[in-house]
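Project standup — Tuesday

K.O.: blocked on the structure for the chain from last sprint. Re-posting the sequence here as requested.
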Amino acid sequence: MILSRREFLMISAGTALTVSFPTFATTGVKAKQATAITQVFGDGVRLTAIALEYDQSITNEQVNIKDFNVEGRTITDIFISDSIGLDKTNSGHFVIIQLSPDDTNLSLSEMIPMDNATVRPKPTDGGKPWVAGDKPASNLIFKDPKATIKTNQTELTTTSVKNLIVDDFQQLVFNDPETGKSLRYNLYIPKNHQDKPLPLVLFMHDAGVTSEFHRATLLQGLGAIAWASPEDQAKRPCFVLAPQFDEIIVDDKSQASPMLETTIHLIESLSKSYNIDKNRLYATGQSGGCMMTIAMNIKYPDLFAACFLVAGQWDPELVTPLTKKKLWILVSADDLGAFPGQNAITEKLEQEGAKISRDIWDARWTTDEYRFAYDKIIAESNTINYTVFAKDTVFLPGADKAGASGHRNTWRVAYTIEPIREWIFQQVKN
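H.V.: unblocked you, prediction finished:
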């Protein structure tokens, strides 16, 4: 893939990392290289570790947490690994300095101007100013992380960044001959994918992630990478497709941009190139991505085997084609738009004959509590499940609850719930 000048500049905009390479007094062994390690959480990517590489093998007995200090960060663990990652070994060429993901000011996101942004007058009704197909004013990008380690008054600079799971995706561009649109996309290709047809999960991001930065959708939260984690792939191998839209794909008038067709054409193209099970195509999205998922199912009701709809809405008078779809709908009672919007949609679907299971969930539940609640709702054996996070449960302690906070915090939690991911993969197109 050849990067455009703008993409190169955006990727290069990150701040260099500075780190010291400690020498172990008992051995004289000195680190030769440092790598920043990032992980993606429900609310975005964070620097969570630094890997120091040595020419000689190091043992756990040679390292002490007291010998390291990372400016502005809390060190939670020091251990040995035989690779750049978070796997612990008894000996290896890497010392991993693990950092607390709960330290303050860890966000790596930044907004920069979008080229050729669409200019529209501010709506008098207080609604959003954009229309499907518009270019927003800002690009969401993610800087490379910055960290400083000081040991024995020595200070050096890191040379690379390892983004766990994110780096397993390929960055590609699809040029759609039918719509004339170009679409950046990220693709996870599972191991041994030639052995048998495997499912494909399509994840579509929200409007706030609209960007020319190719990997923004991977770094903003768990919507794409949750399906590609080593743990999930071991249980449920699949392709994961995460388009990076650089235009507004849907609007509040229930209109979709031509990217709807381009994304469908991309799926068709990938299905010809890879051993993808066409009876197990799944779609999911948050906010605008959820709305695009709804729009795709209205226009192509026989394409997806099942969908996970997170915090979206649509004109209820248009959703009749969803009546017989296999859907899991998740929204927060604190979502000022999507909660009443999904209530209207599910009421319309019930009027059309759909059988819907409903339940109130707590976004603060443990893994076992989610499993219990999942088993309860699944026992009803309906094709549509509608779960609502109870009021005030999606917010972190001390978080601002104003405005769209209840909306955004829904997907901070949504893609952490493994039973829903399990449910998706149990569905096969009739």
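K.O.: great, moving the ticket to review. The CA atoms of residues 358 and 386 lie 5 Å apart. Residues 16-105+143-161 form a domain with the Immunoglobulin-like fold (CATH 2.60.40.2180).
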